[in-house]
Amino acid sequence: MRIRIVDAFTDRPFAGNPAGVVLLDTGTFPDDARLQRIANEVNLSETAFAHPLPEEAAADWALRWFTPTTEVSMCGHATLATAHILHTTGIATGTVRFATLSGVLSATAGDGDTITLDFPTAELTGMRVPDTLAEALGARILTARDTGPHVGDILVEVADEKTVRALAPDLAPLARLTGRAVIVTAEAEDPARGYDFVSRVFAPAVGIDEDPVTGSAHTALAPFWSARFGRTELTGLQASARTGLVRTALHGDRTLLTGGAVTVIDGELLV
């Protein structure tokens, strides 16, 4: 079984968000326990497993994503990484459709090494968060949104970019207070630097203390900031230690996410 490690939402190695990618030759997935053990061994935010579908299917590949501890229903960076491998190896060209737990998602190769993902836009609703969430984050929360069933996160706005960058949350209570993750965001301090907003994503509830760059979170960040700025096309910087840029384009109930990818490891599972 061949395993690649791809850095997604970046144009250089050792940045962005690394994802494991396993392309299966068979038309079915191994049992869930084996997939989970492999993802735990790879020990990245997500490992993607994909197998080809027959021509008459509604999609080209079946795709699933696992963190080191659980399967998740949506993952942007590992989808981008999978599409990158399909295109760079010549297995696919143009647009690839993936059958996933979040419906059919597509990925289209663009100029250079960029890929654009077509994902459902998160359904944002206002919510009141407990004071204990602000205490766990260590920052005052200005506004909060529930991101709906596809994403399953809490999106919170804080005062400024400096606050986002300085966060050092208490992860144990944070894991108890969130479903999948908490997305923390603020307006960019200086848009001339090439991004409109910043974010960080903490997901200890699913075994990820901090996710380096989270594509799915930007399906919530895009409508949130597009409403604020009055523009449908924006660029977000995820301000983790590795950092990464996600270009977003809001089209009603669909959000396009564009970023680059670089393959850094190509190996073989021997067991």
What can you see in these coordinates?
With 271 residues, this protein is an alpha+beta fold. The protein has helices at residues 32-42, 76-88, 131-137, 148-151, 161-166, 171-177, 218-229; strands at residues 2-8, 17-23, 46-52, 61-66, 71-72, 95-100, 103-109, 115-120, 125-126, 143-146, 154-157, 182-187, 197-203, 208-211, 233-238, 244-251, 254-259, 261-268. It has an 18-stranded mixed β-sheet that branches. A hairpin with a 2-residue loop joins β16 (244-251) and β17. α3 runs antiparallel to α6 (171-177). The longest helix is centred in the first third of the chain and has 13 residues, at 76-88. The mean pLDDT is 96.
CATH class of the largest domain: Alpha Beta
String of helices and strands: EEHEEEHEEEEHEHEHHEEEHEEEE
**Beta-strand segment tally:** 18
CATH architecture label name of the largest domain: Roll
Strand content: 35-45%
Largest sheet: 18 strands, mixed
- Poorly predicted regions are none
The number of helical segments is 7
Alpha-carbon distance between the termini?
9 Å
Overall 3D shape: globular
Structure classification: alpha+beta
Mean pLDDT: 96
Rg is 18 Å
CATH level-four homologous superfamily name of the largest domain: Diaminopimelate Epimerase, Chain A, domain 1
Helix content: 10-25%
Annotated CATH topology of the largest domain: Diaminopimelate Epimerase, Chain A, domain 1
